[in-house]
Amino acid sequence: MKSLGFGACGTLRTNRKGIPEDDEFKQKMKKGDAPNFFHKGDILAVTWQDTKRVTALTTVHDNSLTPKSVRSKLRGGVPCQK
């Protein structure tokens, strides 16, 4: 599919059959820690901590980071005009 110009991206379960039991995937992380990136050929694996651990595989992205904006959970502020 790669030779035809198609790529793939999606999440995976690290306890699935056929997934290597590497220590990189099992490192303890805290929410907000920088994601871990791993390359093997054309496949990039990235793992980060959200409410639960998230691991994704992709053939269409690289390991560059983009700035993140954090939304505040504070309520209130300026009332809307009617």
Automatic annotation (TrEMBL):
Residues 3-70 form the PiggyBac transposable element-derived protein domain. This is PiggyBac transposable element-derived protein domain-containing protein. The lineage of its organism: Eukaryota, Metazoa, Spiralia, Lophotrochozoa, Mollusca.
